[in-house]
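Intended use. Records like the one below are meant for learning the mapping from a protein sequence to its folded structure. Do not use them to infer anything beyond what is encoded.
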Amino acid sequence: MIPEDQPRRRVLGGLLAAGAVTLGAAPASASARSGRGGRPTVVLVHGVFADSSGWNDVITRLLKAGFPVLAPANPLRDLAGDSAYVSSVIDTIPGPVILVGHSYGGEVITNAGRGHSNIKALVYVAAFAPDEGESALQLAGMFPGSKLADALVTRQFPLPDGTTGTDGYIDLEKFHEVFAGDLPASVTRLMAATQRPGSVGGLASASGVPAWKSLPSWYVIPTADNVIPAAAQRFMAKRAGSTTVEVKGSSHVVMMSHPDTVVRQILAAHRATR
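Structure written out for the chain above:
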């Protein structure tokens, strides 16, 4: 009788012989792995109540322009762990990187961006850009206008140590108004049903030394954002010295409703730092 794993070994052996799989090989060079003309890899980090699919229209445009793109799944469990995970993804990328964050993803890139010599720029998209010691929840309430607090639904979940954590969701009936008011209701119903919750503990965690103090940054501010008030974003952008563009009437998901504007800011960051 042939052992159960022998067919799998024969397949792997064939792939190795054909050069399709290489074990123990060194990573590809930066020039081989970067896009046409040495373009940086654009790393897109989503926030709470969302997933990486929110970047789809931005990704499509960046790929067409010849940029390598990664949009990793943000764990949304705790700020330190989420930032460490994104940092570990950056560790695997040879060549230059432009790091982009939406919403809570902005706080993640603010922390994950430290200590990487290949990161050329930060781009904040309707995002948090905290200073050391600040939290997302603190910044969201710093200026009037956020409708998030009244729309939150919480659910308990078990932690590995036996204690209990709290996840935050947006009420299904309020999701359209709060999160994505300029998208069709047919789209936001699906987004609401599939939203990924964020740990309240993570949203309340104090941020570390911000990467924007040592890296140039760009900012996209939607003026009708009901999650992070535009005034709060203007405050953070000015403090970080960001090159800023405002999108009049856009909701929190400006990367979905105005992807061209977001891509233009990413391209501006690339031109200024290449």
